[in-house]
Amino acid sequence: MSATRKPLARHRRIVIKIGSALLVDRGAGLKKAWLTGMCADIAALRARGVEVLVVSSGAIALGRTVLSLPAGALKLEESQAAAAVGQIALARAWSDGLSADGIVAGQILLTLGDTEERRRYLNARATIQQLLKLGVVPIINENDTVATTEIRYGDNDRLAARVATMAGADLLVLLSDIDGLYTAPPHVDPAARFLEVIPEINAEIEAMAGGAASELSRGGMRTKIDAGKIATTAGCAMIIASGKTDRPLSAIEAGARSSFFQPARNPVTARKTWIAGQLLPAGSIAIDAGAETALRSGKSLLPAGVRQVTGSFSRGDTIAIIGVAGREIARGLAGYDADEARQIAGRKSPDIAAILGYAGRAAMVHRDDLVMTAPEAREAGETRTIANA
Q1: How far apart are alpha carbons 198 and 245 in whole angstroms?
Q2: Which has the minimum average pLDDT: 3-12, 77-86, 287-296, 307-316?
Q3: Cβ of 44: how many Cβ atoms within 10 Å?
């Protein structure tokens, strides 16, 4: 066990994400022996005082096996039908597996909107907190029966990260068919180096992400890195590990190869965690060097520092803020609609009233509604700790 990480049992609350390929076999269906081992691992953690949440893929994969749907890409309506059948079987399997150790399972189905919209996010968070208070293990999945291509997560890696931040977890474990992060996809580049500890997710780390490694899995390393950015920004550590063994959590504890992503030293507030984790910013604002320096020092974004406004968004929507290098450095809640933002971009705050016809906010994005998302920018400009707001 690396000195930079602690044993799983010393964490307070862990979210475990399980990929479809681990849980479902294309021909045989549910991998019952593997699920039994996983439930035993969860029971062992619970016996040592750890709260556990599970984000379980597999509904569509299981449903398409039950329905004998052909291999390859499914139409949207076929995926939704497979999910409707598979979700029942998946929930029953988890309930039966955990009940062997006297553990009650509770099912939560989420859509993208449940975590992107603030009120629904808070409602989902309250449900999760109550289930944990009652000693229940939440089994969470995306609601594939109603989600469309435009309003879905598209993978359970990022969903798991949002659940981890929503629940205030201190560790996210992503189990899949790869044992961690490499400098390049190991099945393509034999010289790829394994990375055991990742202090921060910077541009170099993001460049190492590859594509999906399995037909049954929608998420590849790209989505795992995205998940890591969401989780670590909120102060939640993350582990990427192989789930191919029968007792994967026990294997991690025993020293099996895995990659550990360290949490941010200065995690953001709970509200800013929600802002940073938004998957679909409604638009973006490109800023100049002076504005970037101001944001890094903890100040608000003023119209004078805005170079370009992209997209169609309304006041209060989440927008990405692009620095001079062309990379996203922050996210925030827009103080103006997109059309108004374009009119006042590059102008001084005292000019706003004359341009728009009313005295608006001085800031394009107020610092209370803004979070630095690039690691180097976050360490410079964000000093607050997690709160329950």
Answers
A1: 24
A2: 3-12
A3: 17
DSSP structural state of residue 156: H
Nearest to 172 by CA among 379, 40, 385, 8: 8
| Tokens encoding 10 | 């010393």
User: What is the four-CA torsion angle of 247, 253, 255, 261, rounded to 10 degrees?
Assistant: 110
Cβ–Cβ under 8 Å, residues 349 and 291? no
- Three-class DSSP category at 301: strand
Which H/E stretch holds residue 50?
A: none
Handedness of CA 316, 317, 320, 324 (dihedral sign): negative
Alpha helix locations (H) across the chain?
20-23, 32-47, 59-66, 76-99, 112-116, 118-133, 156-167, 203-207, 221-233, 248-253, 270-276, 289-296, 338-344, 352-356, 375-381
Task: Please classify residue 157 by burial: count the beta carbons closer than 10 Å to its beta carbon, then call 0-12 exposed, 13-18 middle and 19+ buried.
Answer: buried
Cβ within 8 Å of residue 202, ≥6 positions away? 374, 375, 376
Q: What is the bridge-based pairing of β-strands 181-182 and 194-195?
A: antiparallel
> In this structure, which amino acid lies at residue 266?
N
> Which pLDDT score, from 0 to 100, does residue 4 have?
67
pLDDT digits (tens, 9 = 90+) for 255-295: 999 999 999 877 777 778 888 887 778 899 999 999 999 99
**Range scoring the smallest mean pLDDT among 118-132, 269-283, 318-332, 370-384:** 370-384
CB atoms within 10 A of CB 266: 16
